[in-house]
Amino acid sequence: MDPDGHNSIIIVTGANDLLTPEDIEAARPVISAAQIVVCQLEIPLETTLAALRITRQAGVTAIFNPAPARPSLPDELYRLSDIFCPNETETELLTGMPVSNQQEAEAAAHVLLRRGAGTVILTLGERGSLLVTAQETTHVPATPVKALDSTGAGDAYVGSLAYFLAAGKSLTEAMRRANHIAAISVQFSGTQTSFPAAADLPAELLA
Fold it and tell me: Which of 128, 129, 144, 170 is the 20 to 30 A CA-CA neighbour of 136?
C-alpha cells in the first residue's frame, strides 16, 4: 500500500485453477435460475466462458469483470457480457488507451463496445464510475472519502452492482449505490474484511 491507499497485488490462484467447465455444467440449473451472474478471471478462462454461455442461453444477465488484468481476451467473451465492468488498469491493458480523464475513458469504452460488450461500466476509483452504451454516456460520481486501502474495492463495487440490479434498481441507481459501498470499503484494511455488512449500511441505501 502507498500512503494514498493505492495497492499492488499478487494473485495466487491455488484451488481456483481446479474449477472446470464440467463443474459449471453441473451447476447449470442454479445458473439458469439466477437473475444476475458475475464472472471474472480468477478461474480458468474456459471455465468462465462455459458459465457465460449458460447465462446467455438462459437469458440471465451476465456481468463480466476482467480481473485480474490481462492484455487480451477472446472476442466471444465480450459478446457474452451484458455488462463489461473493468477498472482503469484493466481498461488500459485491454485497449492500449489511457483513461486519465472522462473523454479518454469514454473513447476506451467504445473500443470495448465495438468488440461486442453490451454495456460498459468503467470503475474509475475516486472519480466514480462511467456508464457507456452505444447511445449514451453517464458519469456517476464517487462518494469523497480518505482511502486507507483500495484492495477489494472493485469486488465490493461489482458485487453491490449485481445485488442492486437483482433488487430491481436501474443501472445508474445501482451504480450510485455501488459507488457508495465501494467508498466505505476503501476506508478499512483488507478485502472481504473491509466490506460492510448490511446491518451497518444506512437503511435508505438498501431501500
Answer: 144
